[in-house]
Amino acid sequence: MTASKPLVILKETIVAGESKAINMEIAKLHTMTKLKIPIIVERSKLEGPTVLFTACLHGDEINGTEIVRQLIVQKINKPKRGTIICIPIINIFGFINKTREFPDGRDLNRVFPGSKTGSLASRFAYYILKDIMPHIDYAIDFHAGGASRFNAPQIRIVPENPELKKLSAVFNAPFTLYSKNISGTFRNSCDKLDVKMLLFEGGKSLDINDAVTKEAIEGTKRFLSHLDMLNPRKKAISNENKTIYIEKSNWVRAKHSGLFHGLTAIGSFVKKGDLLATISDPYGKVEHKVKAPHAGFIINVNDAPIIYQGDAIFHISTQLENE
């Protein structure tokens, strides 16, 4: 079966069987230097869904960019059927400045669906939804933890959505967290457009972690294989360990300021009272113990060497599915 009508993105036409890189240009730097956001499109000659892989919605979450880059380098983005679109860097301004936000100070992931005449971030959100998302059936948006907080590889989906749950089981990350859509997010807008989106979290900002990248790549191959889109030259590796569904979780916050010494591996299961970390003064006189308030899986750890009272330091599951 041959592919259907040509795909038109930003006035560029991509026919079946074609590969094309399209440059999205919305605004220049204050130096008048042009900024181009490459959109890499790969189309099979065979009909199939259109899948979007995006990263760096937050400009400092570069592990996501590395994941999408690897999908391209390994030619995983060349589909057996259908179309795969990759945008390794959405927030090009934040990426250049190594910051989370846009130059206008706004978080792009809080301004969707955006506005054609709004702030810079709002305009980007508007054009992404207007020019790209109407073509998309499935999407994976790759993120990392912010502010030195390291996320265990995980998929986030809304509760009570059987189709997304099935896709999360196929991706099979170590953890799947149920989390409601937040107003203004990319994920929330995609849901309203009936785009089936998985949100991947893994690693931390301004860092590239090989283990996190590998988890994401293997999960993506399983995802594409499920849709019968995986490049025939690639193989999806099954994972014997099934994803752990987490319905509820909470943060352990520091009761003291000082030097932070984490003692617990990300992704591990701890029991109530287990020693998680110590917080010490710089002078060798005081050391405070941080113990687990309850049993659960460690899904996020603060990697900052210096913390302040009230800082979030461990994210621990409190309720698993079917508990």
What low-confidence regions span 5 or more consecutive residues with pLDDT below 50? Answer: none
Strand order in the largest sheet: 8-9-11-18-16
Helix content: 10-25%
**How many H/I helices?**
6
Shape: globular
What structural class results from the helix and strand content?
alpha+beta
Largest sheet: number of strands, sense, barrel closure: 5 strands, mixed, barrel
Average residue-wise pLDDT: 95
Kindly provide the radius of gyration, computed on alpha-carbon positions and rounded to a whole number of angstroms: 21 Å
Q: What does this protein structure show overall?
A:
By secondary structure, the chain is α+β, with helices and mostly antiparallel strands. The protein is built from 6 helices and 18 strands. The strands form 3 sheets. A 5-stranded mixed barrel has the order 8-9-11-18-16. β5, α1 and β6 (83-87) form a beta-alpha-beta unit. α1 crosses α6. The longest helix has 17 residues, at 210-226.
Q: What labels describe this entry?
A:
alpha+beta; 323 residues
Question: What's a quick, concise take on this entry?
Answer:
This protein has 323 residues and is α+β, with helices and mostly antiparallel strands. It contains 6 helices and 18 strands.
In terms of topology, how is this protein built?
Layout: E1 7-9, E2 12-14, E3 19-24, E4 37-43, E5 50-55, H1 62-73, E6 83-87, H2 92-97, H3 120-131, E7 138-145, E8 149-157, H4 162-171, E9 175-178, H5 186-192, E10 196-204, H6 210-226, E11 244-253, E12 258-262, E13 269-270, E14 275-280, E15 287-291, E16 296-302, E17 306-307, E18 312-320
Parallel strand pairs: 5-6, 5-7, 7-10, 8-9, 9-11
Antiparallel strand pairs: 1-2, 3-4, 4-6, 8-10, 8-16, 11-18, 12-14, 12-17, 13-16, 14-15, 16-18
